């Protein structure tokens, strides 16, 4: 909105089927995070539209939408509280049961790590989650997202292991820099300068020997 004269996305059109995992890849600045921000309605497109279940995003109640579309960022915010409190954060305390907490942690592939800690779920995360690695932080953030039973999960930079479980039955829109994390995605869109230049699953895109193929090849040889 601060630079209305420069269009970031250009005739970009994509469809995501419920329950599928869709990945966006492409060079830095190509518009991947912008797509996720538009889906969250952090701002609206200048033209064109975004629909969920056939209804324009602008017709949804914003707080309902934000409950259903849950983002997990690369640098998730954790609080100086226990792991339990971080997963339960924002939920009505009456709704929080051990079963739900552990269920969400298992889906996010972090349960085994948590119970290996001296205090288990009561272990403090430290200020800004200082006691945890980036991947562990993100998995706790994914558990926090999953406990709310989101319809659509938005992952800007995913952790592969966390993703594989979490993806079952939930629609996932994933941005990946490490291409190995999205090989199981149902469909991959390659974005360049706000346009889709290639689409397909991992194997189809490799067979094309186009940009995705080159991006993969570059990462293997790096
Ligand atoms: N707040 C903003 N104001 C103006 N321009 C912006 C703003 N945020 C992003 N842009 C521009 O929009 C374009 C797309 O940015 P976006 O964050 O969507 O890229 P990206 O594909 O997610 O890149 P990366 O891989 O580096 O995360 C960039 O050219 C950027 O300069
Ligand atoms: Mg980005």
From TrEMBL:
<dbReference type="InterPro" id="IPR039421">
    <property type="entry name" value="Type_1_exporter"/>
</dbReference>
<keyword id="KW-0472">Membrane</keyword>
<feature type="domain" description="ABC transporter">
    <location>
        <begin position="2"/>
        <end position="218"/>
    </location>
</feature>
<dbReference type="Pfam" id="PF00005">
    <property type="entry name" value="ABC_tran"/>
</dbReference>
<keyword id="KW-0067">ATP-binding</keyword>
<dbReference type="GO" id="GO:0016020">
    <property type="term" value="C:membrane"/>
</dbReference>
<dbReference type="InterPro" id="IPR017871">
    <property type="entry name" value="ABC_transporter-like_CS"/>
</dbReference>
<dbReference type="InterPro" id="IPR003439">
    <property type="entry name" value="ABC_transporter-like_ATP-bd"/>
</dbReference>
<dbReference type="InterPro" id="IPR003593">
    <property type="entry name" value="AAA+_ATPase"/>
</dbReference>
<dbReference type="GO" id="GO:0005524">
    <property type="term" value="F:ATP binding"/>
</dbReference>
<keyword id="KW-1133">Transmembrane helix</keyword>
<dbReference type="GO" id="GO:0042626">
    <property type="term" value="F:ATPase-coupled transmembrane transporter activity"/>
</dbReference>
<protein>
    <submittedName>
        <fullName>ABC transporter domain-containing protein</fullName>
    </submittedName>
</protein>
<keyword id="KW-0812">Transmembrane</keyword>
<keyword id="KW-0547">Nucleotide-binding</keyword>
<dbReference type="GO" id="GO:0016887">
    <property type="term" value="F:ATP hydrolysis activity"/>
</dbReference>
<dbReference type="InterPro" id="IPR027417">
    <property type="entry name" value="P-loop_NTPase"/>
</dbReference>
């Amino acid at each position: 909105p601060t630079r209305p004269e420069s269009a970031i996305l250009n005739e970009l059109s994509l469809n995501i089927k419920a329950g599928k995992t869709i990945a966006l890849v492409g060079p830095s600045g190509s518009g991947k995070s912008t797509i996720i921000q538009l889906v969250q309605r952090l701002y609206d497109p200048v033209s064109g539209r975004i629909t969920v279940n056939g209804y324009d995003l602008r017709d949804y109640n914003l707080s309902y939408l934000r409950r259903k579309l849950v983002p997990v960022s690369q640098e998730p915010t954790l609080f100086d509280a226990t792991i339990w409190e971080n997963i339960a954060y924002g939920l009505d305390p009456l709704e929080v049961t051990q079963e739900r907490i552990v269920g969400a942690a298992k889906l996010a592939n972090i349960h085994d790590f948590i119970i290996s800690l001296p205090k288990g779920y009561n272990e403090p995360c430290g200020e800004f989650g200082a006691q945890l690695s980036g991947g562990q932080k993100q998995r706790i953030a994914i558990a926090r997202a999953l406990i709310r039973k989101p319809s659509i999960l938005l992952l800007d930079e995913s952790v592969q292991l966390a993703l594989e479980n979490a993806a079952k039955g939930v629609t996932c829109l994933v941005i990946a820099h490490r291409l190995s994390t999205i090989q199981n995605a149902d469909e991959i869109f390659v974005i360049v300068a706000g346009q889709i230049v290639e689409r397909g699953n991992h194997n189809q895109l490799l067979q094309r020997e186009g940009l995705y193929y080159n991006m993969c090849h570059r990462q293997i040889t790096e």
